[in-house]
Design brief:
97 residues, 3-stranded antiparallel sheet, two-stranded antiparallel sheet, 4 helices, 5 strands, 20% strand
Length: 97
C-alpha cells in the first residue's frame, strides 16, 4: 500500500522498527553522511553538518527527512534522535517543544 501522506510519528515509528530489527544497520545508516555542495548546505529546510568553517558540509538521512517536514523557528528539525550516555541511538521521536 502506498501512503499519500505520512506524519512525523509515522517516520519515527518506522525508524524505531528498523532499530529493533537491525540495530547495527540502522545506526550505521543514521551515522552515514556524505559531502554536499553549497546549494544543499544553503537549502532552507535540509539540515547539514558543518563541523567548522573549513570542513566540508555533510548531509545524512535524518537531515533529508527533516528537510521534508521543514524546520521550526528555532532551527530544529521535526525528528529527534534519542541517545544514551554512551552516545548510542536508543530511539527516534518527534522533536519536543
Amino acid at each position: 500500500m502506498i501512503k499519500e501522506r505520512i506524519s512525523i510519528q509515522d517516520v519515527c515509528n518506522l525508524l524505531n522498527e528498523m532499530l529493533d530489527l537491525d540495530y547495527e544497520a540502522t545506526s550505521n545508516l543514521i551515522a552515514c553522511r556524505v559531502e554536499c555542495n553549497e546549494k544543499i548546505e544553503k537549502h532552507p529546510t535540509i539540515q547539514v553538518q558543518k563541523l567548522d568553517q573549513n570542513a566540508p558540509s555533510k548531509v545524512g538521512i535524518i537531515g533529508v527527512l527533516n528537510g521534508m517536514f521543514g524546520i521550526r523557528e528555532d532551527g530544529m528539525g521535526a525528528i529527534a534522535l534519542e541517545i544514551d550516555d554512551d552516545k548510542r541511538i536508543i530511539g527516534f521521536k518527534p522533536t519536543p517543544d
